[in-house]
Amino acid sequence: MEPLSHNHINYQARIDYIKRLLVDNFGLSDKELSGTKTTPIQYEADFPFKYNNFVYRISFPLDISTRPRNAGLKQAGCVPIPAGAREFIMRLSNADAEGMYRETRVQNEVAILTLASAALQHIEPHIVPRVFGWGPATPGRLGWILQDLMPGVPLEDIFDPAGSLEQKKDILGQMARILKGLQDYQLPKSIKGWGGLTFDDSGAIISASMPSVGAGPWQSLDDSYRGRLKVALRRVEDNPYLRGWRFNGIKERVEDFIERGLPKQFADLPSRQDRAIIHADFTSDNLLFDPETGRLTALLDYDFSSILHPAYEFFRSFGPNGGRFTGWMSDKDAEGRELGALRMAKLTGRFPSPLPTPVMTQNGPGVDWQLAQAWEDELQKHHVNRPSTIEGIDKLADVDELLGALAPWRLINKDFLRMNTDEGQRQALKRMAEEQLVAVLEHIGF
């Protein structure tokens, strides 16, 4: 019999925890509690990787909008529960999630939801989940958010290569409009830094550490990358394969770049003082839509969100098959040359005609050129700030590429390592990681 996964070990304890939250916040009787259904969403008991959050659908047997609420449901970022509402989403943050720091992650998500709701209020239907209650993660207590159960269904096969290009264009146009709203939103003056968010004692949204990094806030874009590069070095210090990159002079080269090279990379970025709401996981996986109207109905999962330069959204969102903008990479193989051509098309805003045939890779088809051009066309149509309009984004992307190369996921993720115990494969991954990191360093002159 296979052992239970680390996700499933505390399954019943989490259900019991939710029941206590419902009793504490709504004063449900035993009978009412027994009639309340708590159903996991997108949950696999044997999923090998740690979930960032455990998500549940809560179905009440009665209207809870008139129930007395304690202070937990009157916190900053919350709105009143609408009359007649009986179904909600409950998100519990996983204290064991890889690379997520719990101190302000709930506060950051609620604050971003608050800002995004204001930024996108002009879009109908309203696509940002409302928050009705939340609690921070503390020692021995999981962080939680009670929010809207949003209408709609997953996009699923719409972006399949065989799907309708016209339907894809329609969805991409709606995505571009959402992105434009996030970019154009004027941040409150209380947010002074780059990184994450939280609430002060008066309920104002203020800068805080970035939950996916565990550091910050920073006073400039330069400082944000300097801080994150240093965190990445510390993160691999005790890794048995990377050893803090203390071999072949690599660590010294990285530290030299942080000290001397980083300011030069940002010198050609006139917009380096710009900040925006960054979702950082803005993909079809986090969108719902109405099949009858074709309208997007929800943008979900703000767990990785932050306040950073508008370029950062293009480094983390929109999918790897043509939407994302990457930093420099070697053109020694067909895949690298294809990605280099896509990068140039995005930088110039001009795509080759006719469009290239996608390159087949060991992971399947490469760039979906039709989809990539359609995305660029919609960004232009909606006047979205994009790679072709952000002067110096190529050098910023190179810094981000270096950041990713410092902490290669397949060598630092404990779950991946646990499933891949072959030492020969691990050593091969180490050699590939070193080659990539050294190549990026050489490209930027270090």
UniProtKB/TrEMBL annotation:
Gene3D superfamilies: 3.90.1200.10. InterPro entries: AGP_Transferase (IPR051678), Aminoglycoside_PTrfase (IPR002575), Kinase-like_dom_sf (IPR011009). Residues 85-318 form the Aminoglycoside phosphotransferase domain. PANTHER family: AMINOGLYCOSIDE PHOSPHOTRANSFERASE DOMAIN-CONTAINING PROTEIN, AMINOGLYCOSIDE PHOSPHOTRANSFERASE-RELATED-RELATED. This is Phosphotransferase enzyme family-domain-containing protein. It comes from Rhypophila decipiens.
